[in-house]
Amino acid sequence: MKTVFVTVGTTSFDELIERVTSAEVTQELKSRGYERLVLQVGRGALLPAADSCSHLRLEAFRFKDSIAEDMRRADLVISHAGAGSCLEALGAGRPLLVVVNDRLMNNHQLELAAQLHADGHLLYCTCSTLTGTLRDMDLSALQPFQPGQPKNFANFLDKALGVK
């Protein structure tokens, strides 16, 4: 069963959960052959019920000890732009669409998503452009992320966050 896994990490990103479960987005996912939508909703106020999605089989949970298996089983990962979530999805070798929370102040997430996109590793958008990005996405164009250079990534994060 072709699966989309959505994660917001430990944060609250209700706008993403609301958008990804909307009729418009679920219809787009269904038209691309996806049948199952698994949501990790974190601390958000929304925890959609299994029967709240008419186009896809829906499962939702707040937290697990590990989401590694959910990522490995996914045909597409949709994630917030947190560094940990991005690295976990890329490390699992899964196609990744990052949804930047453009309501955050001093949004370092946009810088991270833009750089990983420029390097060809992921696609990114905002909640308002999610449907169009899903409609136009070409996952075959994504380049595998080469793990094993944590120092380079740490340096990038330090620079992006203004730490060094």
Give a structural overview.
There is one protein chain. This protein is of the alpha/beta class. It has one domain: Rossmann fold. Helix content is 37%, strand content 17%. The protein has 7 helices and 6 strands. It has helices spanning 14-20, 23-31, 68-73, 83-91, 108-118, 130-136, 150-161; strands at 3-7, 36-40, 57-61, 76-79, 96-100, 123-126. Strands 3-2-1-4-5-6 form a 6-stranded parallel beta sheet, with helices on both faces. Strand 4 (76-79), helix 4 and strand 5 form a beta-alpha-beta unit. The chain is globular. The chain starts with a strand and ends with a helix.
What is the number of independent domains? 1
- CATH-level-2 architecture: 3-Layer(aba) Sandwich
Radius of gyration of CA atoms, rounded to a whole number: 15 Å
Biggest sheet statistics: 6 strands, parallel
From N to C, what is the helix and strand string?
EHHEEHEHEHEHH
Which residues sit in consecutive blocks of at least 5 with pLDDT less than 50? none
Overall number of strands: 6
Relevant CATH superfamily:
Glycogen Phosphorylase B
- Helix-and-strand structural type: alpha/beta
Return the CATH topology: Rossmann fold
Q: What oligomeric state do the depicted chains represent?
A: single chain
Q: Specify the helix fraction band.
A: 25-40%
Mean pLDDT: 89
Q: What overall form do the CA principal axes indicate?
A: globular
Helices, by number, come to 7
Gap between N and C termini: 45 Å
In spatial order, strands of the major sheet run 3-2-1-4-5-6
CATH class value: Alpha Beta
Strand content of the residues, in percent?
15-25%
InterPro entries: Alg13-like, Glyco_trans_28_C
GO molecular function: N-acetylglucosaminyldiphosphodolichol N-acetylglucosaminyltransferase activity
Keywords: Endoplasmic reticulum, Glycosyltransferase, Transferase
Protein name: UDP-N-acetylglucosamine transferase subunit ALG13
